[in-house]
Amino acid sequence: MTMLGVPLWTVVASAALYLAVAAAAMEFAWHRGLDALTEAGAHRLDLYAASLKSELGRYEILPAIAARQDSIKTLLAASPDARRALLPAVDGYLEAVNADAGSVAVDVIDLNGDVIAASNWNRPVSFVGTNVAYRPYFTDSLASGSGRFFGIGTNTGQPGLYFASAVRGGQKVLGATAVKISVDPLESAWRVPNEAAMVVDGNGVVVISTVPAWKFTALAPIAAHKQEQIQASRQYAGRKVDKLGYERLDDWRNGAWFARLPDWSHPGRERRYLVMSRSAPQAGDAIMVALDLSAARRQQQLAFAFVTGAFLIAGLYALYAVQRRRVIVERLKAQDALQRANDRLEATVLQRTAALQQEIDERVLTEQKLRDSQQELVHAGKLAVLGQMAAGLTHEINQPLVAIRTLCDNARTFFERGQSAQALANLERVGRLVENMAQLTAELKAFARKPEANTVPVSLADALAHARLMVDARIRDEQVRLDIDIAPDAIVAAEPGRLQQVIVNLLGNALDALAGREAPRIRIGASRTDDPARVTFFIADNGPGIDPHVLAHLFEPFVTTKPRGHGLGLGLAITSRIIEGFGARIAAVNLEGGGAQFTIEFVAANGGSIDSE
Ligand code: ADP
């Protein structure tokens, strides 16, 4: 199972690793943050302790110095009446000291606890006439020589720090001097962001605090007897001391601990702070700082963000690498496939080329064979023609030769017997046979000779008339009806002698075909056609018509249906060669009513003298 091409276990393992690293980093950052906070807190505590010591030290000595003043001793030792005269000088002194020291007030208290002189003697709210017998700093100073406490002024309602010192006249305690200082400057000097600083007195009550709302609240519940004491001393001017809402939680390192406290930036809410404390210079007091954890939390968030970012980048890079690897693998596969296809193609091409070559070779071979067999055929054809011709010639020549020999033998016998008349008759027959043979060789010569193309205008009527001289005897003997219709203007381009030969040939064939037929008839016609350049001539008979086997090859040499000795099959071959020589055309058809018709299309000869032999 995969996710974006990455195995699921890798994703799960990465997520687990991320969670573990993030948790560890956050823990580490948290600790680092808290350590930084405690370090800063420790510095601040040192600083506050030092400032408290120097600040308080400045004033602690002040009542003791005043107590040594003779004018004050005298004032306290004097009777109430006598004091009135001494007061202005003392008040003036106190006023000047207070102004120099920058304290809130400096005063002189008699043994009853009544304030008899004060730096603020002439102010609307003056300490003069106030009784402080219940204040611990007074009682402590009478008892031990000096006293000190944080409290709220009963007249002014202002919180402050009181120091007191006993005034002695010899061994006798005459009264006390006291100074009240404000802690406001300390509070404002200590106020820094994300931190609360406070001083807790021996009662566990916050007396100095950078958070105003926390002032005069108790960290822990105050015991009943202690409450009574507080009430009696009017330490907090009769104010009810509330609980701060402080709860100490688990400890941290370096003396710091976590505590729940009211949120100073969001009143009404509580928050967890890191708290550290240090003993204040004065016994029973403690300086505490509450440190905001948001800096440490920010560090924690930063660590989380860093780890998350790092993992995201690493994850994206891993994803990129996986995808890239996949792309490369795909590309290699594609290349491989292409290579294979190429190889296949190449193999196919080679195979096809070989097949083609083989086919070409076969064709060449076949062509060669064909040519060979063609030549063989031609050769065979020639041989056949030669054979046919030889057979014809042999027969044509042998027959008269045999006859001649017989006739000669008989003639000799006739001569020996003295029958010279018979012997002469034989010799005449020999002469005719020799003539026949001469005619045969003449025919062969005519066929072999290239026809001449020296044509002249010849009248077909004249040519027919001349030809008829050769065949009229047969026509008459065989009682053939002759119908002739030759137009007078049937004048053609021809060679007169040859034209007669053509007509004699055609008439001879017609008479051969008509031999032994009922009502033999020959029609001869010649006329001009629509084409003025042509003259048509025909010879038709009512014989059996041309043998269909012969028709297609009619004008080829040695084609004959006649018995051996009656025809060589050269007549029409010679005729067509002569006709071609005239620039004319010859064709043969079988007529519907029976019989054959030979048609010659002559070239018409217009003008010029008519050659008539
Ligand atoms: P031959 O007369 O020696 O046979 P030809 O070339 O003159 O040679 O004639 C070839 C053949 O044509 C003849 O053998 C014959 O079969 C056929 N033929 C020619 N003229 C006619 C015709 N008028 N009627 C029928 N057959 C013909």
Automatic annotation (TrEMBL):
Membrane topology note: Multi-pass membrane protein
Entry superkingdom: Bacteria
Record-linked InterPro entries: HATPase_C_sf, HATPase_dom, His_kinase_dom, HisK_dim/P_dom, HisK_dim/P_sf, Sensor-like_sf, Sig_transdc_His_kin-like_C, Sig_transdc_His_kinase_DctB
Keyword set, alphabetical order: ATP-binding, Cell inner membrane, Cell membrane, Kinase, Membrane, Nucleotide-binding, Phosphoprotein, Transferase, Transmembrane, Transmembrane helix, Two-component regulatory system
Enzyme class label: transferase
GO molecular function terms noted in the UniProt entry: ATP binding; phosphorelay sensor kinase activity
Subcellular location: Cell inner membrane
CDD domains: HisKA
Transmembrane segments: 302-322
SUPFAM superfamilies per UniProt: ATPase domain of HSP90 chaperone/DNA topoisomerase II/histidine kinase, Homodimeric domain of signal transducing histidine kinase, Sensory domain-like
Occurrences of domain Histidine kinase (ranges): 392-606
Entry-linked Pfam families: HATPase_c
Catalytic activity, as annotated: ATP + protein L-histidine = ADP + protein N-phospho-L-histidine
GO cellular component, as recorded: plasma membrane
EC number: 2.7.13.3
SMART domains associated with the record: HATPase_c (SM00387), HisKA (SM00388)
Name of the molecule in the record: C4-dicarboxylate transport sensor protein DctB
Organism, scientific name: Caballeronia glebae
